[in-house]
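Would you mind giving me a polypeptide sequence along with per-residue structure tokens?
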Amino acid sequence: MYILGINAYHADSSAAIFKDGKMIVATEEERFTRIKHWAGFPAQAVQFCLKEAGISLNKVDYITIGRDTNAKLMKKVGYLLSNPSLVGGAIKRYQNARDVTSLEEEFKKIDPSVDYKSLKKKIKNIEHHRSHLASAFFASPFKEAALLSIDGSGDFTTTMIGIGRNNKIEVLNSVDFPVSCGLFYTAFTQFLGFPHYGDEYKVMGLAPYGEPKYVDKVKEVLTFLPDGLYTWKPEYFVPPTRAGFKYENNIPFVGNLFSEKFVEVFGEPRKKEEELTQYHKDIATSVQRVTEELIFHILRKLKDRTGLENVCIAGGVAQNSVANGKVAEATGFKNVYIPSAGHDAGISMGSALYLYNHILEQPRAQPIWSACTGSRFSNDEIEAFLQTRNISYRKLPDDELFDIVTEKLIEPGVVGWFNGRAEFGPRALGARSIIADPRNPKAKDLLNLKIKRRESFRPFAPSILKEYTGEFFTKNDEVPFMEKVFPIKKEKHDLIPAVTHVDGTGRLQTVDKNISPRYYGLIDAFRRKTGIPVLLNTSFNENEPIVNTPAEALDCFLRTKMDMLVLENCVITRS
């Protein structure tokens, strides 16, 4: 049985394909369009999935989309009746919803031979947050777990809690739009001068530079409820429908969510070009702290209610790796699973799993521990491409390759590393990575100057051999998707300064030999030379989506000041 799952007409459009419950490939449309957070129909991602599965659209048994326009329909109507000024914005959203109901036309463009009537019967709508829950639980190793989906909004829900047992998900409760932890964080992100969709991670990176001086003031915006959920004080926010949540040329855009009352309490918002003051840093710290408190409030009550040891978390807020690293200690859950694509791209995967496991009641496949489900290119394909560009290169076996790359890192140098299938999700995990020596205290500035051209306060991540995690971090846990931040042991700070954030933490990725053998081999070669089982790892891009093809990797290498490019076994250096 083949199931094609998609996230369409929503930020981070994507596609995933499964055979008998096992994921074959999954990828985001932005990797093909080269536009971040692409929100249109994922035509190229769908074509990629079908090609990799070796089937035509006619061979697909079901097509799922992680969106159900009928979900909470009466609550939507009630919300509009009580807020008539929002009808204009709702009409625009309705137009977007109509796109979802005309998916057959998009699929016909991909394969004109497909039968229209049979195709229509194959399409199944799965509620947004149920898709999130499924993307985490059905991919996890747990037979039973508490579940949390938390983000900006989807299908008139912003937070959903539940229980997963075997191949079933039971929804316990939810928070209705517009009250939203994700939108709360977005409002402060905009206030701090980061206006673009998806900029929230910048606030998380800025937070360690401040002090939590304004926690009480920030917390006043929210109300923590006794049942473990929450609400907010609406006078602080502009309703998203009125603020302007729209897609311009398939790029998501959110208007300012903070109100005049918000500005009255917190002061004038920072403009994008203005200096970041200590006040801004302290606000960022306070917002991060309150967000963590809210997540822990939800999860503690969920732990009490379910009595379970395991928890699975998904949704945009599940990308808050600082909070994720504290969940087990703060809430009493013993084990935490968060998928590589916890954000909205993951609902393509989740909608397919929800249909297969929960609705069709099929048995679950093996847990998903690898995010590498995207594009890949053979050495033959890479060599043919390099020859068309008249690029000089050397092709080396792995042992020689690891030796020459680690020598370049030690010089010190910066290396673009293109290996195997691309990652599904926002993190580079050793497939499409830029790597450097974590011992070099100047590596962070070097990367920002030579390649990334991004804010200086944002940290770079450590990829560490799994067996050495407890030696370098205060917590010893598997973190395959770089989804958690842990404190680095104080005595190790000076050994790996380039990946030690200002607060002594690191957003780690534990590298398993059985899951990522080549990346593991490279780090191990570096360890044998330096005694350090860690590499600095950041995404292979320059203010664009992560590179997807050898051509994009080469172009990024040529326009930046990287010292070496590795495309599988082909090595390119500066002349």
